Amino acid sequence: MTKQEKIKQLIEMQKKFIEKEQTAGVSMQEYFKPDEQSELHGYSDDYMKIAMEIVDKAHQEVGSKR
């Protein structure tokens, strides 16, 4: 997956999260320790993983290190 595709994926994840937050609300418990049945199960881990892949790719492109 390209960097641009990963960025688009993050934006889609953000849109879905914002929609859920605005329609039903999101408690701290649901965000940080969601049940396995929750839409948010794995969300923060997945989001962080993709974001770090983008950061790593950007550093690779310019020849820098984080």
Description of the structure:
71% of the residues lie in helices and 0% in strands. It is an all-alpha fold. Helix 1 (3-24) runs antiparallel to helix 3. The protein contains three helices and no strands. The protein has one domain. The longest helix has 22 residues, at 3-24.
Assign the structural class, choosing from mainly alpha, mainly beta, alpha/beta, alpha+beta, or little secondary structure: mainly alpha
Number of helices: 3
Helix and strand pattern: HHH
Largest sheet: none
- How much strand content do the residues show? under 5%
Topology, pairings included?
Blueprint: H1 3-24, H2 28-32, H3 43-62
What's a quick, concise take on this entry?
The protein is mainly α and 66 residues long. It is built from three helices and no strands.
